[in-house]
Amino acid sequence: MKGMGSAAQVIAGTPTGIATAQTSVLLGLEAHPIRVEVSCTRGPAFFQMVGLAEAAVRESRVRVSGSLSKLGILIDQYAVTVNLAPADLRKSGAALDVAIALAVLAAVEQLDPRALEGVLLVGELSLDGSLRPVTGVLPRLEGAERRGIETAIVPRGNSAEAGLARGVKVLVADSLEQVVQHLRGQLTLPTAPPTLFVPEMSVNAGDLSEVRGQASARRALEMAAAGGHNLLFVGPPGSGKTLLARLMPTILPALELEEAIECTAIHSVAGTLPAETGIVTQRPFRAPHHSVSEAGLVGGGDLPRPGEVSLAHHGVLFLDELAEFRRSAIEALRQPLEDGKVCIARARARAWFPARPLLVAAVNPCPCGYFGHPRLPCRCSDTLRDRYQGRLSGPLLDRIDIHVSVPPVEVAALVRAGGGESSAAVRARVIRARARQRERARELGLHATLNAALPGAELERIVKLDQESRRIIEGAVARLGLSARAFNKVLRVARTLADLDGEQHVRACHVSEAIQGRILDRTGTR
Ligand SMILES: Nc1ncnc2c1ncn2[C@@H]1O[C@H](COP(=O)(O)OP(=O)(O)OP(=O)(O)O)[C@@H](O)[C@H]1O
Ligand SMILES: [Mg+2]
């Protein structure tokens, strides 16, 4: 390669340098800075890596040596020691390759070590020296400037994601050779163009206008979308629960840039970014199968990975056939749903992922599905039904603000021409109701914007009830034995109903409708 000493010349020299390069490893969504220190001396050839490197990092020796040989550097001729500091942090993944290769080059005096100062290097190498995209580029770049990083160099394949980063100049490269030439001043790498964020609506989900009848389920969908309330559909097979739940994303406002950045970071770490865009542009819709493990649902693993609840952040988490999920998985959802994030404790550190999805769950009223059906008989024994309903009860249901019965569709409604309102019309109301909540949150200095997240302690201050509303709610508490938590949910949902109506104060009709959404028992009958 031009400007590079031949292998023979390098071996003839006596490089004994130590060089450092900057990179990072991820723990959850947090990037931890890693200093790659390399010492190379001539002598008995070896390559050792110290500093808690896991298998994929140790294998980088093969990729680094292959890539360097393309540049005419044979590291087999050196005693190479790579130290990854800090030593007490586990290093995993292949994203350290480029930093290791460049520190080696600088240590054998083929690159001025000063060229590596203030440069963050992220990327995996192929044997031929090309740069392969890596996961978690965006979180690695966020906040890099606070560590004194001015420039980051990333693989071209990560360009769209890198274009969302702020505060640091990001350059993209195709190969190690290009990076070396750039650092030597022989070439100028292109900057990652700022990614043009164009939010998209989920186009494949269909449209609410296709749903016939089901007025109360449609209303529940709208309420849930407007106030961010978790929602449960209870009904017999074929009543349209899955159909309705899948339409939830079509009535949510488009993703905002800040939300897209968070979603992109999570999906980047998980390796689930959409290939076409390279960033998240739609509200996620995640519908894990009921056989999903606890770690699959909430996240976990040796190297913490986000679970479905985080992959659905700012979107919809749909748990279809809720009764079929493992109890342990459902139990594990409680804490994330409460806190809006998942914490994964590891021996030396703690990883966390945001987790604020809108939860939509669907369930049959009993194993055969027909309990409470207006025409068909239920074939389940009382014991079977009790056991089934017992599986559903508990703390998760308590965290679902709106429970709604989805009865079988009337044949008349199915054959009647024309469906209901379109998703766009409903979404317009949802957007207005959310704007009101945002305005109120600003006026009152609230941390939470959506009604579903209003803290219990502040509810009385935020949701002021007139005399009639108070009478209705007190009656419901006495009649239905509402718990304090259920009471709070009624207030939150009532506030959303008032916001949908564009009213400043919650009125009796809002409270009554909110109570209806709470008093369904597990069978879906009142
Ligand atoms: N209200 C409706 N309007 C139009 N089509 C409907 C309606 N309800 C159901 N369908 C049709 O019936 C099919 C079955 O509905 P869906 O799968 O949503 O039922 P489900 O309630 O989820 O049933 P299960 O309990 O068996 O999962 C859908 O593909 C849809 O085409
Ligand atoms: Mg279904």
Structure description:
With 526 residues, the chain is α/β, with parallel strands linked by helices. The protein has helices at residues 7-12, 55-58, 60-70, 97-107, 137-141, 159-162, 176-183, 215-227, 241-246, 257-270, 294-298, 308-311, 327-332, 334-339, 382-392, 395-398, 411-415, 423-444, 459-462, 467-480, 484-500, 508-519; strands spanning 18-27, 30-42, 46-50, 78-85, 119-121, 124-125, 131-132, 151-155, 169-173, 231-234, 285-286, 299-300, 305-306, 316-319, 341-345, 350-354, 358-363, 402-405. α3 (60-70) crosses α4 (97-107), α8 crosses α21 and α21 (484-500) packs across α22 (508-519). The longest helix has 22 residues, at 423-444. It starts with 6 loop residues before the first helix and ends in a 7-residue tail after the last helix. The chain binds adenosine-5'-triphosphate and magnesium ion (MG). Adenosine-5'-triphosphate is lined by residues 211-214, 235, 237-243, 362, 364, 369, 409.
Number of continuous helical runs: 22
Distance between the termini: 78 Å
Cofactors and ligands: adenosine-5'-triphosphate, magnesium ion
Unreliable stretches, pLDDT < 50, 5 or more residues? 1-14, 520-526
Count all strands and give the number: 18
Overall, the morphology is elongated
Q: Describe the biggest sheet?
A: 5 strands, parallel
Strand content: 15-25%
Instruction: Write down the Rg.
Output: 28 Å
Mean residue pLDDT? 88
Helix/strand/pairing category:
alpha/beta
Strand order of the largest sheet: 11-14-17-10-18
Percentage of residues in helical conformation: 25-40%
